[in-house]
Amino acid sequence: MADSAAGPVDLVVLGGGSGGYAAALRAAELGRSVALIEKDRLGGTCLHRGCIPTKALLHSAEIVDSINDSEAFGIRATLDGIDMAQVHAYKDSVVAGLFKGLSGLIRSRGIEVIEGVGRLVSPTAVSVGDRVVTGRHVVLATGSRPRSLPGLEIDHERVLTSDDALTLDRVPASVVVLGAGAIGCEFASVWRSYGAEVTIVEALAHLVPLEDESSSRLLERAFRKRGITLELGARFAGVKTTDHGVTVSLENGTTIDAELLLVAVGRGPVSAGLGFEEVGVAMDRGHVLVDRELRTNIPTISALGDLRPGPQLAHVGFAEGIYLAERLAGGNPVPVDHDNIPRVTYSHPEVASVGLTVAAARERHGEIRTFTYNLAGNGKAQILRTAGAVTLVALPDGPVVGVHMVGDRVGELIAEAELITNWEAEPAEVAQLIHPHPTLSEALGEAHLALAGKPLHVHG
Ligand code: NAI
Q1: What domains does the chain contain, in order, with CATH numbers?
Q2: What is the Cα–Cα distance from 131 to 402, expressed in whole angstroms?
Q3: What's residue 233's pLDDT?
């Protein structure tokens, strides 16, 4: 092994996904020298196997829904079919365009990209092939991959991960989706729009169980109306592959036959065999342990994104990357607050939220105030023919601490809700703001008007 000829760089970043490349970009912007090590393609899960390609599938599913619902809008149109090859070409072209842009951006900032599998070999060095790259600081950003359940074997033919589902060359006739988190609900939504028979199996009592119960219930109502079968509070017992597909059995005795089983029971950290333990990095079940400032137990090594315990979201990775680059460049930035992160599940309808659920707010603060505004009163929602609601959670005579929304396109509204909760705005302050008419954003305005004691389009 040869030492890096140029001597240590300021920052060695292991992993070029959302968190890793954001750290690299910000560090370079701050004048630091950066080596970014990536074994596959810059952009990581989010760009190649996650956020971006799944949202492209969801958008093509939305077009199917529009065609199928067109008569309600006075348009006669019939669906001729779904050309999966073309759907994938569209999805892949979106990814390719963004990948080209990202690669150019990283090049333009003078970041050295090293292709290959990096392995931590000391508190300040990572080996890639026969090269050793040394740095004053090392950032571990190797992300996550789909995980399964003990004894549940993924054959990538009939039992799939989300990676397999993204490249499936056909519309399945029927699917069992195991797990009703964001991945399960988004694929269930896409496949149902494409015409598949879909059953969701979830061990907990509700879809999207991390969300406020009111949002889960609205999504359940909408999914049932769309013809999706829900097996809630049902634990997976086993799967048998058959000539025609799979037979999934549940602990409650139910069996379900389907063409495919999608396993969407969470994602696990990518850390095995990468030298972390050997160098002495403190870990827990494969996750690298960090403090609020993303420091590991070794002073020169930090970690971020899906690799540490906590939320596995690309936008959190971006924020942590920026934060870390600034801290390692000697600044004093504010650590990323995991309490106030916007979350969106991009199903039809969408679920979006920020801050505390009603239950969590009660537990933390005792007495709270809530208000639910039904989208039935919102002009734009009626034009779009979407059902849903906005629920606010506020402290008595205090700020808004949680916002929960369900409905088509509500994901585009959550950034305003994030400003509200992060700035600890009081309902009366938000009620002063003018929301353009007719937009979905008025639902947020109306809900705050009501909570401030001056409801407008709401029955008292
Ligand atoms: P998840 O952890 O959010 O959901 C997995 C679900 O599977 C849970 O509700 C769990 O109760 C259920 N489950 C586990 N074992 C089970 C069993 N034996 N039987 C039945 N149900 C069982 O994981 P998911 O959806 O795979 O996503 C992984 C990560 O990626 C999450 O952190 C998620 O937030 C993130 N992600 C975010 C997206 C977004 O923001 N739109 C999109 C896709 C993923």
Answers
A1: 4-145+269-338 (3.50.50.60), 159-265 (3.50.50.60), 349-451 (3.30.390.30)
A2: 49
A3: 98
Question: What pLDDT, on a 0 to 100 scale, did the predictor assign at position 35?
Answer: 98
Active-site entry in 437, 448, 457, 459: 437
Q: Which residue has the tokens 């609601």?
A: 389
Give the residue carrying structure tokens 């080596």.
35
User: CB atoms < 10 A from the CB of 85, how many?
Assistant: 9
| Residue bearing the CA closest to ligand 1, atom 35 | 312
> Counting runs of H as helices and runs of E as strands, what totals does the chain give?
14, 25
Beta-bridged to residue 431, according to DSSP, are: none
Please tell me the distance from the alpha carbon of residue 66 to that of residue 76, in angstroms, as a whole number.
11
Chain mean position to CA 225: 25
**Taking all residues of the chain, what is their mean pLDDT, rounded to a whole number?**
97
Residue ranges around ligand 1 (CB below 6 Å): 149, 178-184, 186, 201-204, 209, 235-236, 264-267, 312-313, 343-346
Yes or no: say if 138 and 120 are a contact pair by the CB < 8 Å rule. Answer: yes
pLDDT at 458 over 90: no
With a CB cutoff of 8 Å and minimum separation 6, the contacts of 137 are: 10, 11, 12, 124, 300, 301, 302, 328
Atom nearest to 204 CA in ligand 1: 11
Atom of ligand 1 nearest to the CA of 306: 32
Which residues lie across from 257 on neighbouring strands? 247
Band (pLDDT 50/70/90 cuts) for residue 1 is very low
**2 pLDDT exceeds 50?**
no
Tell the residue number behind the tokens 């029955």, with chain if given: 459
Has this prediction a pTM greater than 0.90? yes
Residues 7-47 pLDDT 10s: 899 999 999 999 999 999 999 999 999 999 999 999 999 99
pLDDT in tens, 372-411: 999 999 999 999 999 999 999 999 999 999 999 999 999 9
437 is catalytic: yes
Q: Which amino acid type is present at position 242?
A: T
Q: Which residue from 128, 110, 91, 123 is spatially nearest to 1, judged by alpha carbons?
A: 128
Angle between helices 84-108 and 51-68 (to 10 degrees): 140
Contacts with 19 (C-beta within 8 Å, 6 or more apart), sequence order: 141, 143, 304, 305, 306, 316, 317, 318, 320, 321
- Asked if the peptide bond before residue 436 counts as cis, ω within 30 degrees of 0, the response is no
pLDDT in tens, 282-340: 999 999 999 999 999 999 999 999 999 999 999 999 999 999 999 999 999 999 999 89
How confident is the model at residue 411, as a pLDDT?
98
Longest dimension (CA), the chain: 75
Q: What's the pLDDT at 127? A: 98
Closest C-alpha to 203, from 233, 224, 169, 243:
233
